[in-house]
Amino acid sequence: MKPALVTGASGFLGWHVAQTLIERGIPVRAMARRPGSIQDLDAEIVPGDLRDPASLQRAVSGCSLLFHVAADYRLWVRHPAEMYSSNVDGTRALLAAAARAGVERVVYTSTVGCIGFVPGGLGDESTPVSLHDMTGHYKRSKWLAEQEALAAARAGLPVVIVNPTAPVGDHDVKPTPTGQTIVDFLRGGIPAFVDTGLNIVDARETALGHWLACEKGVPGERYILGGENLTLQQILFQLASLSGRPAPRARLPWTVALLAGLASTAWAEISGRAPRVPLDAVRMARKKMWVSSAKAEQSLGFRASGASLALSRACQWFTANGYC
After folding, report:
1. What is the pLDDT of residue 4?
2. Which ranges of 190-275 would DSSP assign to H, the alpha helix?
3. Please, what are the domains in the chain?
């Protein structure tokens, strides 16, 4: 059996996708810029960098499946060109390499940020959205990368796109921005909250959704992989219940959060250190990122449990591994 290449296997979601494939008896070739950073995977480890097309061609050679999960996922970046080089140019180069290698199926991991949001309602794959709606370089670069995946599908490469919401759970090593919120809460570092909302989904279930998309997805189609729509206050209350720590009860006005984001990000531009309060994160918080996964449920058989299990796994893993 030919292997499946998983990019970004040293990252949170990429690790879970690779582990899901391994559990199903599929040989995995796991790619990362620093191969030594991939832990606890029974896989063939290969080096590869989205900014190095030759390394991508070597990595995908001989593979029948490609799960492109890798991305530069930061809500602040001092040199935005680096993010576009990885997320947009790298995706284009990898898909071209996959076509040359004769890959039979590609699952591209986009983001819920590329979905249109409906005030007071739920966005889905058909909600109108454009580059103009993307807040910040991360969302813009992922939206442009998604267009590369759609173009490759139109050109004949069997690419299926998945749009995960906010995965949480174990093995969030970096951690991701959502995982960092959980760590901050467990450390007692969230004294107040803003009026925003996320869709929380278990990382293991999201990874299974990738496999379902590979098995049953239609090339050129997008599938939201989401779980439970919650306000940030509801998420913090659940974390309080799981951890025994008190939940903040003070709601921070958005204008105050905006001023904090402006000041924090301005200092980051001077110091070169990532801001404590990224301005793009504050701007994103103006919208509740609530969506429906009905299409994935009906077409792929995707099912997600409530947020409590995912948050519990995250709390247990962060605590056991010394993050808080």
Report:
1. 98
2. 203-216, 232-243, 254-271
3. 4-168+202-227+290-304 (3.40.50.720)
